[in-house]
Amino acid sequence: MPLSSPTSDLKQIMTRLRAMTEATDGEYQLRRFEVYGVEVLQVSYDQVQGLWWVREHRQFREFEFDDIDLVAIEIYDVLHDMQLVF
After folding, report:
1. Beta-strand relationship, 28-35 and 38-46
2. Residue 80: what pLDDT?
3. What InterPro entries does the database record attribute to this sequence (predicted)?
4. To which H or E segment does residue 46 belong?
5. Pairing of strands 51-56, 61-65
6. In the predicted model, what is the mean pLDDT of the chain?
7. Given pLDDT bands bounded at 50, 70 and 90, which one contains residue 19?
8. Percent helix, percent strand, percent coil in the chain, to nearest 5
9. What CATH number does the domain containing 28 carry?
10. Angle at the Cα of 64 (from 61 to 69), degrees rounded to 5?
């Protein structure tokens, strides 16, 4: 997902995260985020507990959140940092 402006990028990320909260095909949702075709991180959401997990592949880190806004900011930061590598 090549990034353009911070505002539109955050809106796109929030749209994907909200879709995870509204999905009806299972209580666990998983989305992958890429930069230039390279998967950078995975985001999981547990609809029952309301918890998010962000797994960053580059530095092999995992974070747990209970706030969608914090998840969006973390995703944005990781994607932006990855773009700087290229």
Report:
1. antiparallel
2. 92
3. YkuJ-like, YkuJ-like_sf
4. strand 38-46
5. antiparallel
6. 92
7. very high
8. 40, 35, 25
9. 3.30.720.20
10. 110
The pLDDT-based confidence of 4 (bands split at 50, 70, 90) is low
Report yes or no on 20 lying in a domain.
yes
Q: How far apart are CA 29 and CA 17, in angstroms?
A: 10
What is the domain extent for residue 51? 6-85
- Tell me the two tokens of residue 55: 């797994």
Residue 1 lies inside a defined structural domain of this protein:
no
Residue 81: CB partners within 8 Å, gap ≥ 6?
Answer: none
- pLDDT, tens only, 48-63: 999 999 999 988 899 9
- Other beta carbons within 10 angstroms of residue 5's beta carbon come to 8
